[in-house]
Amino acid sequence: LDRRGDLLQSVPDAGLWALREAVAGELYRQRGVRVSPEQVYIGAGAEYFYNLLIQFLGREKIFALEEPGHRKIARVYQANGVQMRLIRMDGDGVLPALVAQSGADVLHISPSHHYPTGTVMPITRRQALMRWLTEGPERYLIEDDYDSEFRFTGLPIPTMQSMDQSGRVIYMNTFSRTIAPALRISYMILPRTLLPQWQAAMGFYSCTVPSFEQMTLTRFLAEGYFEKHLSRMKKHYRAVRAQLFSVLHTPQAVRQCAVQDTDAGLHLVLELKNAPEPEALRALLRQSGLPDALLSDFFLDAP
């Protein structure tokens, strides 16, 4: 089918229907998520959707974020001037009691593989947060599923969106991690109940992804190339992890460090024993060609 003429046409605000269909199909195959294409919105990067959601949900609402967490998410909320609460975490994710005490209206979390701690939220903690979600009016949960595709053992953990019976979980993900950062294509899944309100309030915004990239990604998904690509990437990173762990689990390494790993995602936390002061440690990491990000860098409050 010759689609060259379509390249010059304006793109619908939610993105090309064919890509929305392809994303819905891929979500079902990879994550078991059942959504219709009309719930799928295409945009250029997750930050684009963060800004739109703040406008849509209301700047008067209180937004709660994971602490520690991805600094860019916090900076987007700060730049928009909204009230923000930082919710401390334990080994299972954000603490529900602290979420309730915070007075938050919107909770923004990444339960499948948290950045930077790598925490994978268990089902009991997810259920507790879903109870918080339904105990108050006008509460919403933003589920950022970034990095969820790279799980190396066991079955994928169900999304919170698939657990949602109240129509208040907004799901987000991106192809930046699975294909390439330069692609800048993300997507958002809105609950059906919010679709009329979104279209009335936000439908005037133009889609920020050009039709050429959308058509290319549509073929990549619909014709099975993405699934094959993801399978190759998992195989590659599984081998990389095995090689890394063969070094980190030697007797000499065990005396110096401990790995905090969750068999998911493309990063992990390494705990160093008898480590030097932070700046000296950064210098050593840089000299070794390793990332110099320390866990303390991801706290907005005192770590």
Give a verbal description of the structure.
The chain is an alpha/beta fold and 303 residues long. It has eleven helices and ten strands. The longest helix has 24 residues. The strands form two sheets. It has an eight-stranded mixed β-sheet.
In short:
The protein is of the alpha/beta class and 303 residues long.
Reconstruct the topology from this structure:
Layout (H helix, E strand, L loop, with lengths): L16 H15 L8 E4 L2 H12 L4 E6 L3 H9 L3 E8 L2 E2 L1 H7 L3 E4 L13 H13 L4 E5 L15 H4 L5 E6 L11 E4 L5 H8 L8 H12 L2 H24 L2 H4 L2 E4 L8 E4 L5 H10 L16
Parallel strand pairs: 2-3, 2-5, 5-6, 6-7
Antiparallel strand pairs: 1-8, 3-4, 7-8, 9-10
Figure out the total of helices.
11
Strand content: 15-25%
Q: Order of strands in the sheet with the most strands?
A: 1-8-7-6-5-2-3-4
Mean pLDDT: 91
Structural class: alpha/beta
What gross morphology would you assign? globular
- Helices and strands, in N-to-C order? HEHEHEEHEHEHEEHHHHEEH
Taking all Cα atoms into account, the compactness measure Rg is: 20 Å
Gap between N and C termini, in Å? 57 Å
Helix content: 25-40%
Strand runs, count: 10
- Low-confidence blocks of residues: none
Main β-sheet: number of strands, strand sense, barrel status? 8 strands, mixed
Task: Throw out a few tags for this protein.
303 residues; alpha/beta; eight-stranded mixed sheet; 11 helices
